[in-house]
Write a structure and sequence with these properties.
By secondary structure, the protein is mostly helical. The protein is 75% helix and 0% strand.
Length: 384
């Protein structure tokens, strides 16, 4: 009797141990699968969130639902086809939106209208020799146009822009994070092999190499490209800034800035409100002219860069003294408020001015014959 009672207990314990072992193996396998797909999951989540952020806060779309969808779809496609598929997504959206726009204003919305618009949109995509992505997206876009249509609605254009934002965001994310397996390879990753991770790494490397090669072909590495581009942008900036200073509205806008600037507040007692604005206008246009001439005469470029440094040093020093510059409701510094966010750009512009100054000084000091030519052109005799 005792032996007969012990055997079932042993069998039950053995079964429980076997179940426990199998559960442990299954959990380990699934955890390994998740680990292999973790970077892809983060990649897709990041692309979706960033595309929504760009569409809402930069493009001002209220509900850019297609931006994150396009971003995730882009990531789920084989690397070599991503750019082509992004273009196909946009084309498909445009087809669906176009067919929907042409018909729903005349035939209205309803079940047979949806069927008709989808059939026509997909037919146009097929006749244009579009791939599967174009055909499917044209149908989806047509459905959304019919079901969400309101008279005068611009959602079709918004959806097109959202698709572009999502596709570009997906391409950027997959280029920035090279160690990634695209979501389409999650099943392969589930085998527990290291092939998916290696494949994702190779894909990301190819993407980054393609991006670098494309930028190189566009001339990004051309000698002095950044130097000339920064100089040109500063010339343009000073031209526009100087133009503003000749009008009454700008003179009034400048009052809180000049009044609280430790390095520029002296202008009001000396020139008055309008006079101070005119003085700044002359100074900024002078800097623009000198910086422009700096393309050919580096010595004049030095003078322009010095004026630029002085201008932005004067505005940056306003920041600590600007009233109500830090939001008390957010705990004060560093939560910017009022006029301080506008002034923060001058921190970057001051650094840009220092960069131009350094570049011009280096070029002048390293080219004595050129300096002598400039002096001779000015009518000054060079003595050795």
């Amino acid at each position: 009797m005792n032996r007969g009672g012990v055997r079932p207990v042993r069998n039950a314990v053995g079964a429980m141990l076997e179940i426990r072992s199998r559960l442990g193996e299954e959990f380990t396998r699934r955890l390994t699968r998740w680990r292999n797909a973790a970077v892809a999951i983060v990649q897709a989540a990041l692309a979706a969130g960033l595309s929504w952020l760009v569409a809402v806060h930069l493009v001002d779309h209220r509900a850019p639902f297609f931006a994150p969808v396009a971003a995730v779809v882009c990531l789920g496609i084989t690397l070599g086809q991503r750019l082509r598929r992004v273009i196909e997504l946009i084309v498909g959206v445009r087809l669906g939106v176009g067919v929907g726009d042409l018909l729903i204003s005349a035939i209205g919305t309803g079940p047979w209208q949806i069927a008709l618009v989808v059939a026509l949109a997909m037919s146009v995509a097929v006749l244009l020799d579009g791939g599967a992505v174009i055909t499917v997206q044209s149908a989806v876009s047509a459905i959304l146009m019919v079901t969400r249509y309101l008279p005068g609605d611009t959602s079709g254009l918004n959806r097109l822009v959202d698709g572009l934002i999502g596709g570009v965001t997906g391409l950027v994310v997959v280029g920035v994070f090279p160690r990634s397996a695209c979501p389409g390879s999650v099943v392969v990753a589930g085998t527990g092999t290291r092939g998916a991770s290696s494949y994702g790494h190779k894909e990301g490397t190819k993407t980054m190499n393609w991006l670098i090669n494309a930028l190189t072909k566009l001339g990004l590495l051309n000698e002095d490209l950044d130097y000339h581009l920064i100089r040109a942008s500063m010339v343009l900036l000073f031209l526009f800034f100087g133009y503003q200073k000749w009008f009454e509205y700008e003179a009034q806008v400048l009052i809180p800035y000049i009044s609280n600037g430790p390095l520029i507040s002296w202008m009001y007692p000396m020139f008055g409100i309008r006079g101070a604005s005119w003085f700044l206008g002359v100074s900024e246009w002078s800097s623009a002219v000198l910086l422009f001439l700096g393309f050919w005469y580096k010595r004049l470029g030095i003078l322009g860069a010095l004026g630029s440094c002085g201008a932005f040093l004067g505005t940056v020093t306003i920041i600590p003294f600007m009233p109500d510059g830090w939001a008390a409701s957010a705990g004060g510094f560093p939560a910017m408020a009022g006029n301080v966010p506008f002034l923060m750009k001058d921190v970057v512009l001051f650094a840009v001015s220092v960069y131009l100054l350094k570049q011009d000084v280096a070029r002048v000091s390293g080219s004595a014959p050129e300096t002598e030519l400039v002096l001779e052109a000015a009518g000054l005799k060079v003595t050795r």
